[in-house]
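ok, trying the design again with the full structure, not the truncated one.
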């Protein structure tokens, strides 16, 4: 991040704008939303700027900028639409210790003005560090549409009610009250009775919330999907948004963790390969501890929590402690991976059953019904199959599987660094060794990528896609 976003208190502070034409006016329109003392230095102010000066909204110094003009300024804008003049005035402002912005000159500016969605006092600033103004504009348009125009009014009335609301204990209970106001009672009151109806609605809501009992702790066993945040369910997103504590596994991606409520306590219990870094009983105890203290706990597991997630052990612990819970499904790695092959998982005439198997379990390499799997047309998604590839290959061949059976390995399914390796059963082990996979990988036995069926047969170790 090259630019750190902050909100600057400008009430009563000096802001100087050099320039008096359209470019300066654009900045002035934004600055006039604040209660800063705005001074414009311009030899040739246009009519709009002159009008602002006449109405007392700005102070106009009707000449070119001179040393001393930026003294004590918190912010300074060089907005002359003239590179040479902008550089000259910026040098003066630098010497006078103001923070300098040169309009349309990102690299020489000390700060930049973001795109703003204004529901004062709710203000949203959007910045792309100059990389993609079109994206900033699209986000702004989207938010403008989504945020009700009454939001600012509600926030202002809400702000004045904060002291009264402090009668509720801090934390979840108070948050629940405010969320019920902003997303329910507040908008409903404005719609039904206008601004005057908001205060009585707040009072009624507070009474109701003071009466209700302390909210109990709760656990959401939540699937994070395979890594792409867009593959997260809306339910999972909402749970993350509400979480007090998020206890997450190693395969949950940072982009998804970013979606958790900012104040949530984030606990990494990442497990690596065969050996857990936090033991299962420790994880169980951690979940129970936080939920018993009244926290909304999101136990975030990669993919679907019910697939190779040791979910039952955690549920048993939560049930034993009499804590409520729910399972929020996620897209399991196999579903995401098969989608990248442009294949369906089941196919009439090929396989009418699916096997989701693991390469290893807590005891080591996992055993399966190899004879059944070795039959023609069988399809299996093998999780945690990297280390056990040679073992699986040996077992299947020993039980009569065709050495040319297609095998496809998808590493980092759904993520930007996804790789697809198409091979055959006989070449599985060397393919995996050569590929040197660092990320999580699913091995599909009996499935080839749709558009590479021929390639697979003739070039068993071809890497076909990035
Ligand atoms: N509950 C998870 C599976 C956990 S076991 C789910 O439903 O997906 C961990 C294994 O899942 C990894 O060893 C790997 O085989 C697989 N896996 C998880 N995320 C993956 C991804 N993005 N791409 C490929 N395989 C993945």
């Amino acid at each position: 991040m090259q630019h750190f976003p902050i909100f600057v208190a400008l009430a009563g502070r000096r802001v100087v704008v050099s320039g008096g034409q359209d470019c300066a006016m654009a900045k002035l329109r934004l600055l006039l939303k604040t209660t800063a003392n705005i001074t414009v230095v311009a030899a040739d102010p246009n009519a709009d700027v002159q009008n602002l000066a006449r109405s007392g909204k700005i102070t106009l110094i009707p000449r070119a900028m001179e040393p001393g003009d930026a003294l004590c300024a918190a912010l300074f804008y060089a907005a002359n639409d003239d590179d040479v003049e902008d550089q000259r005035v910026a040098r003066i402002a630098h010497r006078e210790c103001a923070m300098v912005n040169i309009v349309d000159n990102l690299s020489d500016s000390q700060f930049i003005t973001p795109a703003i969605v204004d529901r004062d006092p709710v203000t949203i600033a959007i910045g792309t560090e100059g990389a993609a103004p079109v994206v900033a504009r699209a986000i702004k348009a989207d938010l403008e549409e989504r945020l009700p125009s009454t939001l600012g009014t509600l926030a202002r009335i809400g702000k004045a009610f904060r002291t009264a609301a402090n009668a509720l204990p801090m934390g979840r209970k108070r948050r629940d009250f405010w969320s019920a106001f902003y997303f329910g009672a507040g908008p409903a009151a404005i719609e039904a009775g206008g601004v005057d109806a908001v205060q009585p609605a707040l009072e009624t809501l507070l009474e109701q919330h003071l009466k209700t009992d302390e909210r109990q702790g709760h656990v959401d066993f939540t699937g994070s999907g395979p890594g792409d945040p867009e593959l997260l369910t809306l339910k999972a997103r909402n749970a993350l948004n509400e979480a007090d504590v998020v206890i997450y596994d190693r395969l949950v991606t940072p982009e998804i963790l970013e979606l958790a409520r900012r104040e949530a306590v984030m606990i990494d219990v990442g497990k690596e390969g065969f050996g857990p870094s936090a033991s299962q009983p420790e994880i169980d105890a951690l979940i129970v501890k936080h939920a018993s203290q009244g926290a909304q706990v999101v136990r975030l597991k990669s993919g679907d929590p019910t697939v190779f997630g040791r979910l039952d052990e955690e549920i048993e612990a939560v049930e034993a402690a009499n804590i409520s819970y729910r399972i929020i499904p996620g897209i399991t790695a196999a579903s995401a991976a098969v989608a990248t092959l442009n294949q369906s998982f089941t196919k009439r005439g090929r396989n009418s059953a699916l096997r989701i198997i693991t390469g290893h379990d807590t005891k080591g390499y996992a055993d399966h019904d190899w004879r059944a799997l070795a039959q023609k047309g069988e399809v299996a998604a093998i999780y945690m199959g990297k280390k056990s590839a040679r073992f699986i290959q040996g077992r299947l061949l020993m039980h009569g599987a065709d050495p040319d059976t297609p095998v496809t390995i998808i590493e980092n399914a759904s993520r930007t660094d996804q790789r697809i390796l198409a091979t055959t059963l006989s070449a599985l082990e060397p393919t995996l060794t050569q590929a040197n996979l660092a990320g999580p990988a699913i091995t599909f036995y009996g499935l080839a990528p749709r558009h590479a069926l021929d390639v697979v047969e003739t070039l068993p170790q071809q890497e076909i896609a990035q």
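Keeping the full-length input from now on. The first helix runs from residue 22 to 31.
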